[in-house]
Amino acid sequence: MNFLKDKRLATAFSLILMFAMATSFVATPAVMAQDDYPEVPSYPYINAIPNPVGVGQTVTLHVGSLWPCGTSSLDGWEGLQVIIEKDGETVETIDNIKTDSTGGTGVPKTFDETGTYILTTFFPEQIAPVVGGFFQANPPSNATMLEAYSDHLELVVQDEPVEFYPSHPLPTEYWRRPIDGQIRSWAPIAGNWFGDQVSMDASPPAQTLYKDYNADAPEAAHVLWAMPLTMGGMAGGSVGDHGFDQGDAYEPKWTGAVIIGGIVFFNRFETTGSETGLYRPVVAVDLHTGEKLWEQQLIDLQGDNQNLDFGQVYYFDGFNQHAVFDFLWTTRGRTWNAYDPFTGRWVYTMEGVPSGTRMYGPNGEILVYSVSTFSGTMSLWNSARVVSPPVGGVVAEGSWNPQGRVYDAEDTAEGIVWTVEIPTGLPGSVDKVREGIILGTDCDKYTRTDDGEVHYWAIGTADNNRGTLLYNRTFNVPYIGHYDVQDADAETDVFVISGAESRQHWGFRLSTGEKIWGPTEPQPYQDNWGYSSSNSWDNLVDGYYISGNYGGIVYCRNATTGATIWTYTIDDPYVENLQSNEWRFRPAFITDGKVYLENTEHNPYDPQHRGCPFLCLDLETGELIFQIPYRGSEWSSTPIIGDSIIAMYNEYDQRIYAIGKGPSATSVSIMTNVVTEGDNVLVQGMVTDISPGTEEYALRARFPHGVPAVADDNMSDWMLYVYNQFARPADVMGVDVVVEVLDPNGNYYEVGTTTSDATGNFMVDFTPPVPGLYTVIASFAGSKSYYGSFAETFLKVMEAPEPTAAPTPTPAPMTDSYVLGLGTASLVAIIAIGLVLILMLRKR
Description:
By secondary structure, this protein is mainly β.
């Protein structure tokens, strides 16, 4: 069923009210002339926040009248002034201030000198707008609002800056959603992903692969969790080493992947048969924990199952609501259905959505550019205008309330922002839509250029050149072949055309169409296969042009000169690939100064080639950051990223993997916690990986004491061992551990550093210098793979006992001395007599 929109209700109500008012005018004698409207005091005000304020800091001047003004976002009191005085003289007047419909507004202002300033608001005489009878907060319609000055406000400007709300540091521990709304500084690491970005052509989506707001994007192949999607891996048994179906080609297992608010959503099972009744649910999984939150079909009002196509996060800034609204979108023809990501509940429907190039606006609104070179028209449609028309005194303008509504084609047409005429007969069709400009061409990957000419043109979409033909040029190509626009970038003002057969590139100025560089040196002959299909694409980002595909060499060129900055060759060391010694690649996404590349194949051999890499390169230098043999899918969603965590489908085992920085746990103990001063103490402990995936029974059974945390350099091989049952790698290093103590005197210092081993264990010994009670802390600072952790234990050092002195001899009694002396003399005399007797006998 169709629900009436609020604006229709408001219109009907207004007509009834007008009829009633007209009837009362006829039935009741007039008591006041029609032009005899009341005069109303305007009650202007002024405030300054903060007050006091520091020199050079921004202060917000709250300016306005206590009376609201109208009901539309276009309404407001006009011509207000703020008069600024110092030392009795006017130093500045801020003119032409317009309030919003609440009667007030904010005016930013900075002051360069200290002192006390006197601020006053001047409200000029003006006529109040006409409002409905139930808006009693407003002054009477057509009332004369009298000229007036506000009370004076003293504003103190001082040398010392005023402290504003302190910024929260980025997380140093494992974190998850929701993020408290007060922690605004985390926005750069909390990105969303609204849908497949694989198409770089004009058909939706037309965004580039650059994904901002992932400022802590992975720099190691650390796995947070792995979730089976279907029967996967090698089948074994009678079919030998062949693998279960991974979906390529044409029967993808993992599509429509979206990340919103730390939750990854995707279609489960193949598309085939799903829209004719075969069960095909959407699954919602917590990106940080791997927990499945819900799994259900997205059902429309007709009871039909819908496939998830893309997502949306939209900031609505109305006069009643200021909030972000999130949706999962399904499309069937020109009918779009919105669903609540948190529950999967249907929210509203739009029928008759225009066809064209889908983009996202600055607040997340969905934009569709429709261009017809045949009829000579170009239009812009905005999804937000369907729900909340931007003009007129309609109550719905202040609130976002599409719940339960079906907007028919007439309603949906309200979303058209503008339609302009453009020249007819332009060659080809739209190729790229970028900010302020639409680029068209008559070349593509599937159309051979035989006449030696490629034509391209551009039309402006900005306010000052909307519908204007900026150029219509011809590029005289050097040979017969296939040409295609790879990418266009408004920031660097460049677009690039490539030649499939020559594997060369030419750069052009996006704003003027002027050729600025090229041709480049030819890339490997295998790159022709990518440039001749829709399964590879090059990218312009941050002033760089990243190119290459089947040839296995990544080229990074200067976007404005075409000069090669670096190349990286993705070697296949075991020659698994039959067409090259290098691995084919295509970009998955680019973020945080890093390029993430995947390996896919249109219809892979089975058994699949082994060692197909997913890798990360430094965008500026081309240096390899990490690589792991997880294979992407040509037909499923590409790897995606949100909240600085990668979610990807691995064709080797048909599981979804989350890659990112995970939590760690440190334990510490001392074998003997009570020792004597001077004893050596042995501190021992363990550092483990406690990411959600380690809670799986198979891992707990293999690692009963926990999964050891290892060095970043060993991470790829270690993850293959832990999650993919590869052989345990040799020479694995652990992580750095620091042991510190708080001694009995309150001193805090380091007593040793070490590196844990392949089992996660570590030990450090030290000798406590003084007796007393110690707190012993073992800490792991964290790495590219893990957040840090620490643990503490306690040690008591007893004072050493005083050394035992040798016993003092007891003096002998005097009588003993006499006896001793007599005995000695007698002995000497006896010996002497004996000697005399011997001599006498010899003389005989």
